[in-house]
Amino acid sequence: MHYFLEVAIQKSFTKAAHHLYVTQPTISKMVKDIEDELGMILLDRSGKEVELTDAGRIVFEQSRKIVRSFDHLSDELTDLTNARRGKLTVGLPPMIGVHFFPTILGKLRVDYPGIDLHIVEYGAKKVADCVSEGSLEIGVTVGPFDRRTMDSFVFYNDPLCLAVHESSLLASKKSARIQDLRAESFILFPEEFALRGMITKSCEHAGFQPRIVFESSQWDFMIKLVSEGFGITLLPMSIVKKAKVQSVTLIPLKDESLSWRLSMVWKKNHYLSFAARTWISETQKALSLKWKKG
Q1: DSSP 49
Q2: 47, 174, 185, 272 - which has most CB atoms within 10 Å?
């Protein structure tokens, strides 16, 4: 069921095998065994992406509940023995993981060797969706989320800034507004990234649809494209300053609502395993200390 769920979520046997650290033939055989046992095709493999059939959608929802219940049973029994161990999968957006968590992950590995910790890299929007639906126990997201269903703590808040080529007419401005970008070509993250949605919504509120000419999940590549004059981008000030590309000019934004606000999130009114409770307490302590020093 774990394998089937992962294939359905990733819409790919290859990606699912990569995330679960198994071979593709293994995961394919497991899914085929489920289909043979039920006597139904659960996954449509005919297109570029694997899609759930009508039967697959029913099995997906029931499998998710069964797997979740079994995981909770294992977690509660582990807690009962007071063992300092457990399994935890954390969702981290790529740009966030590389800048905030390497040291924390190393310390947790040393201090809690009994915790089997796995990191999956999803866009912030997908992380929030996965935590909300229960397929991830905990993760980091950006910007607003449904506080009715999730608990959280905020650990970083950084305004977005505008990055333009030095030859742009905007480069002479001391600050800029979203309205000033109506005629510009945008270089943005893909749709599954929360920052993408935040920026496009701000443009829509300003009365225009942004003209998106490039998409990338790598902020350094986005800055490189700006340096070559392909367009503009909006990125967190602390991140984009690290690029230090001479031909790129950074301009503060007047819109304070455009901010890289990072939150650790987990499901509200939901049993948290020892591993999850440890992750929350240790990361909250480490991140608070990190930014007090900074």
Answers
A1: S
A2: 272
d(CA 247, CA 71): 52
Cα distance between residue 244 and residue 248, in whole Å: 8
Q: Judging by beta carbons within 10 Å of its beta carbon (0-12, 13-18, 19+), is residue 179 exposed, middle or buried?
A: middle
Distance CA 46, CA 209 (A): 34
CATH topology of domain 1-81: Arc Repressor Mutant, subunit A (1.10.10)
Q: By the 8 A CB rule, do 150 and 156 touch?
A: no
Residue 290 φ/ψ, nearest 5 degrees: -60, -45
The predicted structure's pLDDT at residue 5: 92
User: What 3-state class would DSSP assign to 181?
Assistant: helix
Mean of all residue pLDDT scores within the chain: 87
Burial class (CB in 10 A: 0-12, 13-18, 19+), 77: exposed
Report which secondary-structure segment, H or E, holds 156: strand 150-165
One-letter amino acid at 14 equals: T
Domain ranges of the chain: 1-81, 158-259
The CATH architecture assigned to 158-259 reads 3-Layer(aba) Sandwich (3.40)
pLDDT per residue as tens digits for the range 210-234: 999 999 988 889 999 999 999 999 9
Strands 115-120 and 51-52: unpaired
Decide: 286 and 264 in contact? Cβ < 8 Å: no
CA distance 16 to 24: 8
Q: How far is CA 22 from CA 4, 15, 26, 192, in A?
A: 13, 10, 7, 25
Nearest to 187 by CA among 215, 221, 224: 215
Backbone angles phi, psi at 134, to 5 degrees: 95, 0
